[in-house]
Design brief:
about 450 residues, alpha+beta, Multidrug efflux transporter AcrB transmembrane fold, Alpha-Beta Plaits, Gyrase A, domain 2, 15 strands, about 20% strand
Length: about 450
């Protein structure tokens, strides 16, 4: 179908508009209350605030200490984003601390298990294994006792292992959650190694005794699993001098396995961190400030709705309908992408109102000029859109480019503003160039255009 045929196909155009409205209605369900439709930020809804302190960096120089904290911030951002928690704010707090704000997360334990881990992964040789709830003692200075994860009775199994690791998580390439046929361990975490890691792993395996030696997979001083080296696995490593990867089994729940895979993929923190403050916080702005923000949007929206028909008559009424459509698209997109709305995001919504109306004003002024030159209503609409097209697109694309840059480099409130602005610009372009034109060319408004005074 070429573009000319598309323009003449009224049903197709109407179908696209109805489809967009249907998608908006779907993503906005259940429509009320607002917090069930859109994720609200810590400043609007509250959530969990955690302060971490890096340990063992006191003797570092100021530059090295600063780089270490920045690395911690980057890794924590990766973990939280991969796990799927709502838009976080993670930032430096002085030269040793990191502040983490998780909007809408009212379970500090969930956040603690995700961000408090150092994620130091080590593979160590097992010397002896005790029964759950018992204890072991090292035989010499080269050994240590590390406990496994608690069982259903809360008891931990002790492992006597060699201190020096056979291999570390530095060779880890990826980690993913997978299912297993083993009814005791239906969910496992699969580890993928780098090329160098595959060779190292093969060397480690061939130096162990098959069907006898165990290798403990240790994460942050907790034995996640300690499989016996099977004969087939040993034969493969000895024959090919490479091992593709490993698995961690530990009777995980789906959430536990996902959390473990996330911290392994994001990498180990460059220093141990200690949670020194943790609390559930309410909206930082307070109800009065929230009401003021909503009132600002409402007043601005109503004034624009009143001004446009007074200034542009029937064209202004079209602009009002298109503006409402654009606001619905924006809120629906925020819900669809599971984005978080903060106070700066509300500022983006307010700015979008102006941008949406601005695009229509440019188009309407061109149409009025064509009508003033004596052209018919249909010709005025066609030429008005044609002459305003480049101006509308250029103005919106430059603003969109700025919003994308803010989304990429910004974080927290800045990113929230950029997201709402970007969504509003895309919606504005669609509404101005497609919906507005459809209303002018294919609906009852078409007959009213010629009655507008220039």
């Amino acid at each position: 179908m070429n573009f000319g045929n598309f323009r003449e196909n009224t049903l197709l155009k109407a179908g696209i508009i109805v489809l967009v409205l249907g998608l908006v209605a779907f993503f906005l369900y259940p429509y009320y209350p607002v917090e069930d439709v859109i994720n609200l930020g810590l400043d609007l809804k509250g959530g969990t605030r955690i302060v971490l302190q890096a340990e063992g960096i006191e003797d570092m120089g100021s530059d090295e200490r600063s780089r270490t904290i920045e690395r911690i911030v980057t890794i924590l951002n990766n973990r939280v984003n991969q796990y799927g928690l709502t838009e976080p704010t993670i930032r430096k707090l002085g030269d040793r601390r990191v502040e983490v704000e998780l909007p809408g997360t009212t379970n500090p334990e969930e956040a603690r298990r995700l961000i408090g881990r150092t994620a130091l992964l080590e593979f160590k040789k097992v010397v002896d294994v005790g029964a759950p709830g018992t204890s072991l003692s090292p035989n010499n200075l080269t050994q240590e006792v590390i406990y496994g994860r608690p069982n259903e009775n809360g008891e931990k199994r002790p492992y006597l292992i060699q201190k020096d690791p056979l291999m570390t998580g530095e060779v880890l390439k990826d980690a993913n959650v997978k299912t297993s046929q083993d009814p005791q361990n239906p969910i496992i975490v699969s580890l993928q190694l780098t090329d160098e890691g595959k060779r190292q792993f093969a060397d480690v395996i061939t130096n162990l005794e098959p069907e006898k030696d165990q290798m403990a997979i240790v994460l942050d001083d907790v034995v996640q699993s300690a499989p016996v080296i099977s004969q087939d696995f040993w034969d493969q490593a000895n024959r090919t001098n490479t091992v593709q990867g490993a698995t961690i089994q530990g009777n995980f729940t789906a959430d536990e396995a996902k959390r473990l895979a996330v911290v392994l993929r994001a990498g180990a923190l460059p220093a141990e961190v200690e949670i020194i403050q943790e609390k559930i916080v309410g909206p930082t702005l307070g109800n009065d400030a929230i009401r003021a923000g909503v009132l600002t949007i409402s007043i601005g929206f109503i004034l624009v709705l009143l001004f446009m028909p007074l200034r542009y008559r029937w064209l202004g009424l079209i602009a009002d309908l298109v503006l409402i459509f654009n606001m619905l698209i924006m809120v629906g997109a925020l819900s669809a992408f599971d984005a978080t709305l903060t106070l700066p995001g509300i500022a983006g919504v307010i700015l979008t109102i102006g941008i949406s109306v601005d695009a229509n004003i440019i188009i309407f002024e061109r149409i009025r000029e064509e009508l003033a030159n004596g052209k018919s209503g249909v010709a005025s609409v066609r030429d008005g859109f044609k002459k305003s097209l480049s101006t509308v697109i250029d103005a919106n694309l430059t603003t969109l480019a700025t919003a994308i840059i803010l989304m990429y480099f910004g974080s927290g409130p800045v990113r929230g503003f950029a997201i709402t602005l970007a969504i509003g610009i895309v919606g504005s372009l669609f509404c101005a160039l497609f919906v507005t034109r459809f209303l002018l060319e294919e609906t009852w408004f078409k007959r009213k255009v010629t009655g507008i005074n220039a």
